[in-house]
Amino acid sequence: MTHMMTILGIETSCDETSAAIIQDDKVLSNIISSQSVHLQFGGVVPELASRAHLKKIIPIYQEALDTAGVSQHQLDGIAVTCGPGLVGALLVGVNFVKGLSLATGIPFVGVNHIEGHVYSNFLEAPHPRFPFLCLIVSGGHTQLVVIKEHLTYRLIGKTRDDAVGEAYDKVAKLLGLPYPGGPEVDKLAQRGNPSLVKFPIGLEKSKTFDFSYSGLKTAVLNFVQQLSEEERKAHLADICAAFQQAAITALVSKTLRAAKTYQLTDIAVAGGVAANSLLRKMLTEEAQNQHCRVFFPSIQYCTDNAAMIARAGLERLKAGYSSNFSLNAYPSIQLGEEIQ
Ligand code: KG4
Ligand code: ZN
Predict the structure, then answer these.
(1) Which domains does the chain have, with CATH numbers?
(2) Residue 2: its pLDDT value, please?
(3) Is 168 in the pocket of ligand 1 (CB under 6 A)?
(4) Cα 295 to the chain's mean position, in Å?
(5) Where are the alpha helices (DSSP H) in the chain?
(6) Span from the CA of 80 to the centroid of ligand 1 (angstroms)
(7) Could you give the CA distance from residue 259 to residue 6 in angstroms, rounded to a whole number?
């Protein structure tokens, strides 16, 4: 394909309403509106998320066009997250895009949100070379995937219970920290002493590439419960650091072992937890000993955003995929599962 492709991306799977314009792999705009309505509830309230998306989707779309300096008729294609995520939230994006396509004739394609996270690694140079290993770590997913070429995924390991981001959010909650807990725990952990207590590393001895985070979460809970109020306050940062140490060590050791086993030298990390300071540092350092190259998206592309959806959609459109008006929301679709 010689002419440049201008793609609109739309993301409404959870609590960010986002629209982005990319031109090939260059991001022209990436507007993200995070819903604050959920703060008072300590977690995302699905019904409120849908309503907030509905209010914001059109202004965010307009802002994405304006910031990019692109007008609607210049769009070559539209990519929209159609799952996994909250069904009512997804439907806002999917229906907005169907309406836009109906009015303009612009082709559109449904994109898997997790595939979008993977493609956040292709928004900036340098990006990983095929075949590569991808560690996907978000609020709902913890997976190791071998990616041989564009749009093909071979799952080699996953969490057996909680996702790592979910563990961060639950630990934050039991420590009385605000939602979303991941960034808060990370911030505190950076000034804590991780040797206060040694928490268990999930499936440490297992030969599989699977993860487990429920035992770690329970260990933190048990430890915190036997502390007095003053001890808890005094050691808040240390508890975060000890939890972070165990949570991240599990990710780093399995990822490096998988890279060795599958003889892969490029490792990419994707999803909200890719923003984690210890993961970025530990994996980068330890991968060097193994002569692997590690890729992290810049922080703005780690958490939910529409630029990554546009980038994955571009690849899908180039490969000849497109959706029709029967596209639906698929709340629990798997990575690589066919989208109609
Ligand atoms: O990818 P994402 O924005 O949404 C999902 O698709 O789930 O990921 C959100 C998750 C949340 O669990 C959040 O606590 C976690 O990513 N997270 C972090 C950090 N920043 C976000 N976890 C650990 N350290 C961080 N710095
Ligand atoms: Zn996400």
Answers:
(1) 6-119+302-318 (3.30.420.40), 128-296 (3.30.420.40)
(2) 59
(3) yes
(4) 14
(5) 46-68, 87-104, 113-119, 164-174, 181-189, 214-225, 229-234, 236-261, 277-289, 299-302, 306-318
(6) 21
(7) 35
Cβ contacts of residue 192 below 8 Å, gap of 6+? 235, 236, 237, 238, 239, 240, 241, 242
d(CA 217, CA 69): 47
Task: Tell me how far apart the alpha carbons of residues 111 and 246 are, in angstroms, rounded to a whole number.
Answer: 33
Judge if the beta carbon of residue 297 lies within 6 A of ligand 1. no
> What letter does residue 300 receive in the DSSP assignment?
H
Find out whether the beta carbon of 186 lies less than 6 Å from any atom of ligand 1: yes
Distance 218 CA to ligand 2 centre (A): 25
Residue nearest to atom 8 of ligand 1 (CA): 272
Residue 51 tokens read as 């309503």
Instruction: Supply the residue whose CA is at minimum distance from atom 13 of ligand 1.
Output: 182
pTM: 0.96
CB 327 within 8 A of CB 17: no
Tens-digit pLDDT profile for residues 143-195? 999 999 999 999 999 999 999 999 999 999 999 999 889 999 999 999 999 99
pLDDT at 1 over 90: no
- Tokens 């792999």, residue? 25
Reference 122, options 243, 230, 262, 24; nearest CA is: 24
In percent, the amount of the chain with pLDDT more than 70 equals 99
